[in-house]
Design goal:
With 1240 residues, this protein is of the alpha+beta class. The strands form nine sheets. Strands 9, 10, 11, 12, 13 and 14 form a six-stranded mixed beta sheet that branches. The longest helix has 26 residues. This is HMG domain-containing protein.
Length: 1240
């Protein structure tokens, strides 16, 4: 016949019979996906094409190992009946010859069904608890119109009618008249069971009825099965039961009542039963598996399990406890684990090797040995290793005091017992766990490849006795058990850093970051964490700023930059009345109040800004209604040319909608319009001193003349602007303006002479806009046609005139003119210094950064840890009558001043101007004093806003807290009183601080307050937190209320982890060394929030860190100001460098870690480095339940810590890799296995 082209029968039968049709000449089978075209009654053609509503489903993809119960009803019925009959025979009958024969037959038949216990655990149950013989099947949603049963769950009962079974179900058909759809499968299943038991059908039903609860057949009795199904008895007839199921939304709906599924009596009975008020509960159902008993167990009495002979009054016996390994393990397996793996390989390769593991000598709970009358007995257990498995004999005995089945734990043998009949090699578990944590593969893919490789190599490496490998579910169970034991056995050195953390647990810098990688929301369970409700202080953070109105601060911050072009006016810039008010008051801050007929008008409101959340009676005064301190306004107008930036703000005001700017008082709006229409006096490019020297060299006639006259006409500044008129200054021709000698430090006259050459003269011709349309263009300072700026001659930066000041103040910006680019930038900047202040382009940038930080950021950034030493030192030298630049330089060299780089750089860059004009010094000193005044105002407001007593009892015992606003009585609570308070009782931040922060913190005091007597380490599965080196010292201050505008909502719109169908992920604390370690990881029970760094350091750090690095620190600082003022004063909150450059465009450089000298060598991206590795596991971590997610996440961080510890210790002389290094350092010396052997 020739070659057919098919080597195996499976190939011939593949592809839905297409190969058979090809061989035997049959037509290709009809494609089920092709719609059937039936003629219409009227003769019209039907629509052709693909549309929903197929008669039968198509072939689709190949199915996996999941159970399709609709196609496997018969084997599932057989498996359920085998389990039920097996349990009834063992429980209710004596195991004699007939029963033993039936048990053997049932066990043999049960194995042939190929239906695993895991499938039946949540898909099928027997109805003996509901008072009937039958089954409850969870079929799932019907996906085809040809399915016999369309319901997702059905209860099928069977009774013996004479000599034939009669089947009824909860489906809609009349089973007693037309027959049940499950009758044929039920008959076949009962016949198989009867033949296996070698009994008659009536005898089989007698065994069924031995466990049936007759009382459950009463009508309306609801019995839950599992967590999602419940049967309700409906009496006799074709529908003996109604099935009620729980949806994903946790609502109970009745399957039998489709039109009233949520209102029928069946549904109400199921709700009561599910809540524990009915007959049974979630944990009282049969899990589909026979009761595991051992040959030496005594017979079961009528009232329950056997009684403990050694302890007849035992209330909680451990008879049904499933044996698992319980002793902790080392992260790297010891030598005994490697020797055990070799023994397993030899046993798999040779049939002469037999493995036996003796039982423990004492019960782990009762500490008693086995009874002489009942010595240990062996049973078979499958032990799996890398690519094979062997059967071993495990000895066990029953404790007569607690009825626990005592078996070997496996630690002394290098094994992990997942159950009494399954064990895994510890060495294999270690390699599998490391691969999952480091390589990003899933457990299912790893198990699949392991099985595939075993199929290839096992026939050549091992004899036939090498059994098949367990399923993925069993492997997952063993792996999670191993990971949990390893985590519990980790030394404390793994969860800390010897470089960053001192022996007393103090750490200076902590880096936090959230990882938006969570598990499904349906697996979420509540964590057990001690919390205390603390109240907020509304509007507290606004009083911590020099400008309390955030709208004014934002408006000023938008123009305090080095922009050279005015942005075009846009109606989207100002969209609210608060925004309009902020821009108008910002203009008044820059230009001062308006004068009407010689009288100053402030348009002030009724109350100072920030004292009330109400906007009623609010005016337009920048000092009263805008909260701008007069010292800031005076500083801006004295040091800067404010006309251009004010004009930029006015352009945005006029671009707003008519409904907004019509609310502005007419005098203010008139000034705004005049400011835009006016022809501003523009400054030309300031001639650098070196440029003048080069120009003088090219004009020898000017040098012979003997003098160079430079006229600097400066127009009189407006009131309060600080401007003045500097007349012509004659410079001798022999003085080299480009040399360092041209400017002698410490002599005001010399500085003033040099200033004329530094800043240059004003242009005689101003830049004029031709029409009103040009006022709203992208650049309002376009030169008149035909006018061009002359090209500047080249010069050298080394000839900068302020180089002597740069050397004195150690400020390179004063010596860096920036060349042509710097000169042009300085000439084009909208926000520029006054002409009488010598500076450079680079120095101006640093001054602008300082001014923006003072305006936008709270005072705490200038007083780290509440220390005002740097500000006080600068104020003292500025206020001194004997001021000199040398004294200022000495102050700038102080360590506390050098720490604040923004402050030091700004004062140094203003040094030449402070030397030239003594009138500038008190203005700068007043600005710095205003920062301290802001702190005093904030302290007074916080003190006045504290609640005296939560219960309103003024006579209660109190402690006095002194503040600027007077003495404040704060209720004195002890730690025990707070711990025992009602969960809804709310405490003030001052009360929490006085009780938990200002008093010594220790684990003992916390445990005593909360009544914790256990000395065991924290249960990371129950709390969701792993930080063993930083145990709980204080309760978490659970902030009461939501953050709104009144409670200081953060300005930045930073994207954080939020809950959707997955949880928020994790939140980790890391050190900042070269190889960062995880100090703690928190599994989020909600969305990530800016409060979490505060919660972690308060709960677990005895001494608060100096700096906290977080990608949302700008919001965390505001939260601390209104939630926990003590933390805001003591801790500096900074943004990591990665996110600072990426998405913190609205924050000032005070949030940048580079603005602080102590952060120069700090790795602020340590958290990002560690979380980058965790993101590899996204595809399989999201599918874990909560316990597995917590376990795997904790193990992954611990493993990465070990590798980081190895990199810290690694040198060129290191010859071992990290597993051997860890084993030598932690396992061989003080390992858990060796410690357990010594204790034994």
């Amino acid at each position: 016949m020739g070659r057919m082209g098919y080597s195996r029968a499976t190939d011939l039968l593949a592809d839905d019979g297409a190969a058979m049709a090809e061989v035997f000449g049959l037509g290709r089978p009809v494609d089920a996906r092709r719609p059937v075209r039936r003629p219409r009654p009227d003769g019209r053609a039907r629509r052709a094409g693909n549309y929903p509503g197929w008669a039968v489903p198509g072939p689709g993809r190949g199915r996996g190992q999941s159970l399709n119960l609709r196609q496997s009803v018969r084997p599932v019925l057989v498996a359920l009946f085998c389990n039920n009959l097996h349990q009834n025979l063992r429980t209710c009958y004596e195991v004699d010859g007939v029963a033993a024969r039936a048990l053997y037959g049932l066990e043999e038949l049960r194995v042939r069904t190929a239906v695993s216990k895991r499938w039946l655990r949540t898909r099928g149950w027997t109805l003996d608890r509901s008072g009937a013989v039958g089954v409850l099947l969870k079929l799932g949603r019907s996906r085809s119109r040809l399915d016999a049963c369309k319901q997702p769950a059905v209860a099928v009962s069977v009774s013996l009618d004479g000599k034939r079974p009669l089947c009824t179900c909860s489906g809609p058909e009349k089973c007693l008249e037309v027959g049940c759809m499950f009758q044929r499968d039920m008959d076949a299943a009962l016949e198989e069971v009867r033949a296996a038991m070698q009994m008659t059908l009536s005898e089989v039903f007698d065994v069924f009825l031995s466990s049936v609860r007759g009382v459950a057949r009463a009508a309306g009795t609801a019995v839950p099965y599992g967590t999602t199904l419940c049967t309700v008895s409906a009496g006799v007839g074709s529908w003996p039961f109604a099935v009620v199921r729980r949806t994903v939304a946790k609502k109970w709906v009745c399957v039998a009542c489709p039109t009233a599924d949520g209102e029928c009596m069946h549904q109400s009975a199921a709700v009561i039963a599910a809540a524990g008020g009915g007959d049974g509960g979630y944990d009282s159902g049969d899990n589909g598996t026979p009761d595991m008993r051992f040959p030496d167990d005594g017979p079961v009495g009528e009232n329950g399990p056997p009684v403990a002979t050694g302890n007849p009054y035992l209330l909680y016996p451990r008879f049904n406890d499933v044996h698992q390994s319980r002793l902790v393990r080392d992260l790297v397996p010891p030598d005994v684990a490697q020797r055990t793996r070799n023994a397993l390989v030899e046993a798999a390769a040779s049939s002469e090797t037999t493995l036996e593991y003796p039982a423990e000598k004492l019960c782990p709970y009762c500490r008693v040995g086995p009874s002489p009358l009942m010595p240990p007995i062996p049973h078979e257990c499958r032990v799996e290793f890398d690519d094979g498995s062997v059967m071993a004999k495990v000895h066990s005995w029953r404790c007569q005091h607690c009825l626990l089945r005592v078996m070997p734990d496996g630690r002394e043998h290098g094994l992990i017992f997942a159950s009494p009949f399954t064990a895994y090699s510890e060495a294999y578990m270690f390699e599998l766990a490391v691969n999952l944590s480091r390589n990003g593969c899933s457990l299912r893919s790893s198990a699949y490849l392991r099985s595939g490789y075993s199929e290839l190599t096992a026939p050549f490496k091992y004899v036939e006795r090498s059994h098949r490998l367990r399923s993925v579910a069993t492997l997952r169970k063993g792996l999670t058990l191993y990971l949990a034991l390893v985590i519990k056995g980790l030394p404390l050195a793994v969860s800390t850093c010897t470089s960053c953390v001192t022996p007393d647990g103090t750490i200076e810098v902590v880096c936090f970051d959230g990882l938006q990688l969570g598990y499904k929301h349906k697996y979420k369970k509540r964590f057990k964490r001690q919390t205390l409700r603390t109240s907020a202080i509304p509007r507290a953070s606004v009083h911590a700023h020099v400008v309390t109105d955030s709208a004014v601060a934002k408006a000023l911050g938008s123009v305090f930059n080095t922009a050279s072009k005015m942005p075009a006016g846009s109606a989207k810039t100002i969209t609210t009345v608060a925004g309009m008010r902020g821009y108008v008051m910002a203009v008044s801050t820059l230009l001062g109040n308006v004068f009407i007929n010689g009288t100053e008008q402030t348009f002030a409101g009724q109350r100072q800004h920030g004292m009330s959340a109400s906007t009623a009676g609010k005016g337009w005064s920048f000092t009263v209604d805008g909260g701008v301190r007069p010292a800031l306004s005076a500083f801006l107008r004295r040091f800067f040319r404010c006309e251009l930036v004010a004009r930029s703000l006015c352009t945005q005001i006029l671009a707003a909608s008519l409904d907004l700017y019509r609310r502005v008082p007419e005098p203010l709006m008139t000034r705004i319009q005049d400011q835009v229409r006016a022809q501003p006096v523009e400054m030309g490019a300031p001639p650098n001193a070196a440029v003048l020297e080069a120009a003088a060299a090219e004009r020898p006639s000017a040098a012979v003349a003997g003098a160079l006259s430079v006229a600097v006409p400066i127009a009189a500044a407006p009131s309060g602007d600080g401007g003045g008129i500097l007349g012509p200054v004659d410079l001798p021709a022999g003085v080299g303006l480009g040399r360092a000698e041209s400017l002698r430090v410490g002599v005001s006259a010399d500085v003033g002479s040099a200033d004329a050459g530094v800043r240059g003269t004003l242009s005689d011709e101003s830049e004029v806009e031709e029409t009103d349309e040009e006022l709203t263009s992208a650049d309002d300072r376009v030169s008149v046609d035909g006018e061009s700026t002359p090209e500047m001659p080249p010069y050298w930066d080394s000839f900068a005139p302020l180089v002597r000041f740069a050397e004195l103040f150690t400020e390179p910006a004063l010596a860096d003119t920036g060349g042509d680019k710097g000169t042009k930038l300085e000439a084009d900047m909208l926000f520029r210094l006054q002409p009488n202040i010598p500076t450079t382009a680079a120095a101006t940038l640093k001054i602008v950064d300082f001014v923006r930080a003072v305006t936008v950021d709270p005072f705490v950034v200038w007083a780290p840890d509440g220390d005002w030493g740097a500000v006080d030192a600068i104020v003292d030298v500025l206020s001194s009558d004997s001021y000199t630049s040398a004294k200022l330089a000495a102050v700038l060299d102080r360590s506390d001043v050098s720490e604040l780089r923004l402050l030091r750089a700004a004062v140094a860059c203003l040094g030449p101007g402070l030397e030239r004009d003594a009138g500038l010094r008190p203005v700068l000193a007043d600005l710095l004093r205003s920062l301290q005044e802001t702190e005093a105002t904030y302290t007074s407001f916080v003190a006045a806003s504290q609640v005296c007593d939560p219960d309103g009892d003024e006579a209660a015992a109190s402690a006095v807290v002194e503040g600027d606003g007077g003495p404040l009585h704060v209720a004195a609570f002890t730690k025990e009183q707070m711990a025992s308070a009602h969960p809804h009782e709310c405490f003030t931040p001052a009360q929490y601080t006085a009780t938990w922060i200002e008093t010594p913190a220790s684990v003992a005091s916390f445990n005593a307050a909360y009544g914790v007597t256990e000395e065991a380490p924290e249960d990371f599965l129950a709390t969701g937190v792993w930080a063993p080196s930083f145990p709980v010292l204080r309760p978490i201050p659970m902030f009461n209320g939501t953050a709104q505008e009144a409670t200081d909502e953060p300005d930045c719109n930073h994207l954080m982890g939020r809950e959707n169908k997955y949880t928020g992920g994790t939140f980790g604390a890391f050190c900042t060394c070269a190889h960062p370690k995880c100090l703690g990881v928190v599994v989020l029970d909600g969305s990530e929030g800016q409060r979490m760094p505060i919660e972690f350091i308060l709960q677990r750090l005895a001494k608060l860190p100096a700096q906290v690095v977080y990608d949302f620190s700008c919001a965390t600082l505001k939260t601390a100001l209104c939630r926990m003022p003590f933390v805001a004063r003591c801790v500096s909150f900074l943004v990591d460098r990665f996110h600072w450059r990426k998405n913190h465009v609205s924050c000032t450089k005070a949030m940048n870690p580079d603005s602080y000298e102590s952060m120069e060598t700090i790795n602020t991206s340590s958290s990002e480095e560690r979380n980058a590795l965790s993101r590899r596991q996204e595809h399989h971590v999201r599918l874990m339940n909560q316990d597995n997610f917590v376990t795997f996440t904790t193990y992954q961080q611990a493993l990465s810590n070990v590798i980081a510890m190895y990199k810290d210790a690694e040198t060129e002389m290191t010859t071992t890799k990290w597993p051997r290094w860890y084993k030598t350092k932690f396992v061989d010396v003080v390992g858990n296995t060796e410690r357990g052997v010594e204790e034994t």
